[in-house]
Structure formats: C-alpha cells, structure tokens
Amino acid sequence: MCVNERQYRPANAGSPGRAVQTGPVTVSRITTDTWGGAMIPAVLKSACAALGLLCMNAMAAGPTIGAIDQSNLGPFTSTNGAASPYSFGQSFVPTATSADRFEFLLGGVAATVVLRLRDGVAGTNGLSGAVIAETTPVTVDFIGSEWFGFQFAQPVALSSGQTYVAELAVLSGSLGVRLTEGNAYGSGMYLAGTFAAGSLTGFDLVFAEGMAAAVPEPASWATFMAGGLLLAGAARSRKR
Predict the structure, then answer these.
(1) How many of the other CB atoms lie within 10 Å of CB of 215?
(2) Which of 28, 36, 55, 76 has its CA 20 to 30 A from that of 106?
C-alpha cells in the first residue's frame, strides 16, 4: 500500500466517507481495486502510477506460520490507528490445543507492541481477561501494510472451543491495524480500547495464529546429513 499511516483521515466506522472524531482511534474505510495483481485504494491508483511508486500488495506475502489454526487473511477494507498507550484486540476460538505464534497485518510509526493472550472477552471493552501469556516487544515502523509476527517463548496451552483474546498493546509510537468487514471471521470479533465490546459489529482484524514452522530434531538432522553423505558417495562411485 502506498499510503502513509499519518494520512489516514478519521471516519465513523458505520458511516463510510464521513469524517468524525472517534476519540484516540482513527478509523478509515478504503475502496480497493485490483491493479497489476495488487489490492490498493482505487483513489490512489493514478497517483501511485504517476509518481512511479511501488505500491505493495498488502496480501502478497501472507503469514509465515507453519501450521495455521485460526485466521482471517483479508483482503482488508478498513484501517484503525491510535497512538500509545492503546490496545486493539481480536477474539478467536481455537480448534488446536496450543499455539506459539500470532501474525497481524499492520503498519505504524516507531510503534513498540506486545501481544497479550487473554482468557475470554471480559470487561467493558473486552480486553480485561486474565493474561495467559505475553510476547517480548516487537517494533512496527512501516509505512504501508506488512505482516508482523509475535512469538511466544514456548507453546501456550489452549482449550479447543474456548474463547480467547489476542491483544495488541501499543507501548509507544503509533500503530495501524487492518480490518475486514461483514463478519469475515465468524468465530470472534474486533475489540478496541475505547469502544464497548461488541460495538464494532462486523469488523475483524486481519490475523493468523498457530504453530511456527517446526525445527527438525537433532536426530532428524543426523539422518538428513547421513543421507547426504551416502548420496555424495554414490555420486563419486559412478564417476569412477
């Protein structure tokens, strides 16, 4: 996306195109179009072409999680942004019994963010459930949209069918999240710090959660290397 986070205009999430102040959060609905295989705001298409800018496809890279359990991969149609301190969240219902990595489509300006996994939707804004686990801080300093990963030190045990909340807590800087509309992820809802839980009906964060790509065990590496040596030996024998 060739859109500067600081250029997003505040708009009421329920009234496209009408600029309304919504507290510390700015919400913008964008109209997207396909151009050269990339989803970009239609209103910026001609400007980007004229300036020769590289308009990045927000959906091009995708999450890097090895085994995805729950996800909402977009494409996104709205954005939300806020300066620290602030929190965004997404509730979800896993089918897997553990997870060690979450990824979100984000943009930001010198933002320091941690992911807190909370037990259920609780409190006025839904972000007050007991903290089960928390990642180390991640820096989000990217003008546009990119996937950012949050890795737990070890897999977190989950109960299949139970509701959890993935909270993005902005400790410093400004963070922008990417949203879908129309209840694209049917097993949860979008949460934001200054809004009552359930008031942002139909919105969901663009996210994925699951287990990171598995690292081969030492025994597997040994087997792999032994196989490589055997193949190399066979190749030398054929040359003789």
Answers:
(1) 9
(2) 36
Kindly compute the dihedral angle of the four CA atoms of residues 136, 130, 156, 201, in this order, to the nearest 10 degrees: -90
52 vs 93: which has the higher pLDDT: 93
Classify 48 as helix, strand or coil: helix
Pick from 189, 22, 195: nearest CA to 125: 195
Global pTM reads 0.70
Distance CA 113, CA 151 (A): 12
Rounded-to-integer distance, Cα 123 and Cα 141, Å? 30
| Rounded Cα gap, residues 178 and 30, in angstroms | 11
Pairing mode, strands 32-35 and 98-119: unpaired
Strands (E), 51-97: 67-72, 78-83, 86-92
How confident is the model over 116-150, as pLDDT tens digits? Answer: 999 999 999 999 999 999 999 999 999 999 999 99
> Do residues 107 and 142 lie in contact, with contact meaning Cβ atoms separated by under 8 Å?
yes
What tokens does 91 get?
């509730």
Terminal CA-to-CA distance of the chain, rounded, Å? 57
